[in-house]
Batch of 3 targets.
Target 1
Amino acid sequence: MLFVFYILDKPGTSEQRLALRSAQYEHLGKVEAQMKIGGPLLAEDGKTMTGSLLVIDFEDREAAQAWLDEAPFTTGGVFGEAKIHAYTQNWPRRNTS
């Protein structure tokens, strides 16, 4: 099942984010084959990273939550508010025949 992760960074954690980035990328690599999209949310300047938006296929919500709980940005105190929602992709349309 697909899950959307909408995650906002805690204020003032830009330096932590950069310091933990390679560890976070390694963690993302563990689910790369399951990932549909992923990347940072940006501030109005189009450059400053303020969070993350990911769509990843997990067996269930518990597995999705466990993966997030183990993320270096979570354990390292970068991630603040995090929402996980089940998701169905309808667009672009897929051939269902």
Target 2
Amino acid sequence: MNEEPYKICLRLNTDEAQKLITNAKACGLTRTAYLRRLLNGYDLKPRPSTELEALRAEIHQIGNNINQIARKANAGFATREETTRALRMLDEVYGLLYEVAKR
């Protein structure tokens, strides 16, 4: 059975309203969804920046390449150059993760 929605009027000053709008947008939520989640005790965090998302995608692709080389190595088909390449890519991943951790 659907309950009748409970409407509430909330009065905010300009600064509070702007903060609500900014925080909701940063989390990718509407103001209503943002307030509901706050009321329900969720730990709301801003969405990752587009730069961080691009970095995540890059690390994912490098990880896929490393896995492919590791499979070949375990099957006995990887060359020494491919193994060296995998180790370099792994070093690159560690460098990227270090950059993210510094932020």
Target 3
Amino acid sequence: MDIFDKVAKRMGPIGQHQKWSHGYFSFPKLEGEIAPHMNFRGKKLLVWSLNNYLGLANHPEVRKADEQGAADFGMAYPMGARMMSGNSKYHEQLEQELAEFVGKPDAFLLNFGYQGMVSIIDALVDRNDVVVYDGESHACIVDGLRLHMGKRFVYKHNNIDDCRKQLERATKLAETTGGGILVITEGVFGMSGAQGKLKEIIDLKKEFTFRLLIDDAHGFGTMGPTGAGTHEAQNCIDGVDVYFATFAKSMAGIGAFVASTEEMTNYLRYNMRSQTFAKALPMPMVIGLLKRLELLKNSPELREKLWKVARTLQQGLKERGFDIGVTDTVVTPVFLKGELLEATALTMDLRENYGIFCSIVVYPVIPKGMIELRLIPTAVHTMEDVQITLDAFSEVSEKLKNGYYAEAKIPTT
């Protein structure tokens, strides 16, 4: 079979809908200043879909730092990969400040979050090692494990008894291969808002020998007394062996970092292929990230405002009878019962008639017959934004229950 013919027949579970969804549900264009209210197809909408937790994307000090970084260095500097010719004192300064902030001896900058996690796993484990990971791990973890040539065991989401069971299996296997065991979970699960059970997993070290890697993309900057992350929130910083987070959420930037012991961080620094063979983070982003980190550390009012918005939104949803799952973080899912057609019509109604833009999640990401509306609160949303959203959700929920969206005429082919 010709590869192009195969692609034409199998566009994938999401791609199969691209002919009617592209530009509206998938690859939409939000225009204007990054803010809670942005333009979508000529209309000003209230947006709950931006990973801008602390509102730093358009913070005046951040904009000034980004601009100054570009003026001083241009977009190309430094040229080359970090190992060869792309290093700078600013890259190293950012690494040192990040390591200190998250409570680890050393840190290493990564060009991208998704690619970074894939490459961390690839560098950490070989064919003799065994991986035990949470069943709802992010796609970057799953794809990293696809590169792993050894055995892996998945445990039921946040189920410590099942994690113990898989560790028992992993231990027996590792004894025959002579390898080690790596456990992987998330600090905050981005779809549900649930925290990973870090302390409980760490307690399993009393029974088993393993190292713990966490992806804290949604926890870094939002969780803990200082915003250092979910491991700080759960008071188990030392028990997390390898800490990973991205700049795409609270820092409103691009890139990521991994932090661990000096020996482990140096190992990753010299063995992560995605960094060895890729250009370093551009200097304007590094300069801007230094300012973002400064604000994250020294402006607790931003995090306090974020949590005030999130708690008000979540409490309001619960009071109105909405199912927001088990979230105990700022990530706010709203679960409804309905099919793809209803989800499509409901989302269009929210955008066209209520002026609200939020992300919609359907099968295969969640089970068939379910709809998830995923809200991302930020420090720049207002209480008025929350009230408008609560009122709109109450109305569309009633429409859904009464079968209004089941009658919608929307092309799905």
